[in-house]
Amino acid sequence: MLLRHTTKEIKDREALLVNPAKTCQPIGAMYASLGIHRCFPHSHGSQGCCAYHRSTLSRHYKEPIMAGTSSFTEGSSVFGGQANLLEAIANIFTLYDPDVIAIHTTCLSETIGDDIPQIANKAMEEGKVPKGKYIIHINTPSYVGSHVTGFANTVKAMVSYFAEKTGSKENQVNIMPGFVEPSDMKELKRLAGEMGVKAVIFPDTSGVLDAPQTGRHQFYPKGGTTVKALKTIGDSIGTIALGQIASGPAAKALDAKCKVPYEILSLPIGLSATDRFIDTLRRVAAVSVPDSINEERGRLVDILTDMNQYLYGKKVALYGDPDQLVSLVEFFSDIGMKPVHVVTGTPGAKFETRVREILQSTVPDVNIRVEGDMFLLHQWIKNNPVDLLIGNTYGKYIARDEDIPFIRLGFPILDRIGHSYFPVVGYSGAMRLVEKVLNAFLDRQDRDAPEESFELVM
Amino acid sequence: MAVILTERKEQVFCKGKDSFDIACERRSVTGSVSQRACVFCGSRVVLYPIADAVHLVHGPVGCAVYTWDIRGSVSSGPQLHRLSFSTDLRENDIIYGGENKLYESLVELIDRYKPKCAFVYSTCIVGIIGDDVEAVCKKVSIEKDIPVISVHSEGFKGTKKDGYRAACEALFSLIGTDSPRKISKFTVNLLGEFNIAGEAWIIKEYLRKIGVQVAATMTGDGRVDDIRRSHGARLNVVQCSGSMSYLAKLMEGKFGIPSIKVSYFGIEDMASALYSVAEFFKEDPAIMLRTEELVRSEINKIYPAIQRYRQALQGKKAAIYVGGAFKAFSLVKALGHLGMKVALVGSQTGSKDDYKVLKEMCDEGTVIVDDSNPVELSHFILNNRVSLFIGGVKERPIAYKLGVGFCDHNHERKIPLAGFEGMLRFAEEVYSSVMSPVWQFVPRQYSVT
Predict the structure, then answer these.
(1) How far apart are CA B216 and CA B195, in angstroms?
(2) pTM confidence score
(3) Which positions 344-373 of A are in contact with B (Cβ < 8 Å)?
(4) Cβ contacts (< 8 Å) between B109 and chain A: which residues?
(5) Is the distance from CB of B372 to CB of B321 less than 8 angstroms?
(6) What are the pLDDT digits (tens) for A304-353?
């Protein structure tokens, strides 16, 4: 029992996080930056930050992650990191020739107060930035928000650095996918294409972090939203921002800057959320929903009706990022399951209200904790056991100790593959999710069934 | 895209072609994709395996998360080291200081887990906001009556090596705080052995067979009480020279314990480690006799199998890029046993002396690199038609993208590679990765842009 020290009795903790359910801003910024075509993320801080983010992203995606660091020393933390950053900018353009350098800060450079735009300007003045190349910056103090905040800030930076309003409308819709996997971004593109909508998706890590084996280490794989495309988002007819926390701020910024109207939706995970996404896309782009998409929806509903008896009343514990959790809670509630414990490490005022709203008639006594940790979640599970646990890899300790079926979903997943390639958004994503849930329940039933009631047909 | 940055020209050496001294122990070229980490990382990996201590990371949440159970150091008992504890400093703490939070976290942790000791790791930010971590540790130590040790591991205060040093200082503050018990005349400490996948157990078993007792392993499957009493040992056997030779030096100064440097990896190095221990205890000649017998029988056990792998691997090329150069020495020798040629060898933190040794060991044409990066590594691997890359987490996906086999010789290894039996497993692992049929599907690209 790896977590043998977890007690059933819950005592409020004043300080101390035990087994966190979040991580820090810069890694979200690094991930989002990789969703720009030919972008080189740069970490303005100590060497360790960059090494850790690269390692974690490498473990999650099984892909090489390229990023630079200002390699702070004691000197730079006293006198500021300007010299390091100027040198880094020159080196990066010479050595790696990116289209964009996306510089994010760290707790260290934030606290000593380095002014990144001022340093970037100096680099321009000194001729360190080749023509047609860009530097963008993102403030990502690790002691504010979480990795999701870092992602959100980066999407917002894409807007503030690249969006232009030329006055002539482009017949296209902006889709901000939120902090989801390359597979999900690819699925959103497919859905838009299926509806005949021209969409600019940003960031877009598909084709970057799910790159094929080519026998070559490609510094910049084919994917990612191009700067050219980003320059047009100010002329789009509308923005659909998926995920309140990850995409909301960027959508508002784009509206403020270029008057592009926006709608903020939950991530399209599950039936109802996907319905709203498809319907909004239809309305904004003034198109009709093709039969092919209605059929996808029909297949999802078919599975749900075929297998309803295995889903109804099952208790589930969820942890992870707020945007994902809101949609998952809604989906599981839609299909008759009971989310009884919901934990996120990411701060945010609206999360609890939103989850309570969804569950008010079905699970009125749901346990919800914002800025919680995995230790608390484990204690809740000990007090009120569940049939299923869903979240990132760190849940495997609880699943093992409590012998609960476990589905990996979220960030990071360090011990399984699939998330890069198979989406959970859209109707087909929901089908995959339901398949996983059903397999978890049915495998468990098979495992635990006594000989006489071990069933062939289920 | 340039392959080798001008500033790095002296950190890339080709034996037989170049004649300069390899530059090393330099600051990384800013902006280049370095594979190095920070001071905190160095301290954290060294102390992490102590299983009955709590390891509290004082700072914003990230540093605790990224080091949560990432090292396969196994414990035979407590598993406390595998949990992640953070003071999770927030904006207000940065403004008003994090000392209260640290105090409360420590009290909470110690009350809940009743550890034998608590380590508090300072992260970058703590060095900037100026928390008096030392004072808080002292206060809690008195109140709770256990050692509470402040580890000076602010990320920016040097390199990973400085982190090793801070960890050594933390360990040193524990040593000698309890009196040695039940110690035989022939007792050693194992330093720099982290029990990845149970390697320390293999070494301890060999030592038991030759009649030598181990007082403390630092830090694999480590226990606080063993460390406190470790000054009773007569010899420190130091592996992975980078991380713990400083502790050996400190212990020699204060307790007069001499040390030897060893590696447990590969046939010769493992044998010579055991012989050195036996030689040290030559007052009992039986130890040497038993050692000779052990080495003979262990080699006999694995030799035929290794020859079989060698036949398949003969002449294939390998690349090595590891943290410390000492590990690279053993790997070069071990690959030699498998008939493989080393096309590229390098380390993140090697010293001048290390590179001198490497130069002597390697064949003509071998490229030696210090603090390398993915562009260089990819270039040499492809152009030399390498079949195997040995490295760590950040190197693995590069190897696979290039379509070459890989062996993790760092935190993520799942099988023990130390000792004679480890050499056999290493051969198995290399063989299965290099010979896997999947590589036939890789589109071969032998020129790099």
Answers:
(1) 12
(2) 0.96
(3) 345
(4) 16
(5) yes
(6) 999 999 999 999 999 999 999 999 999 999 999 999 999 999 999 899 99
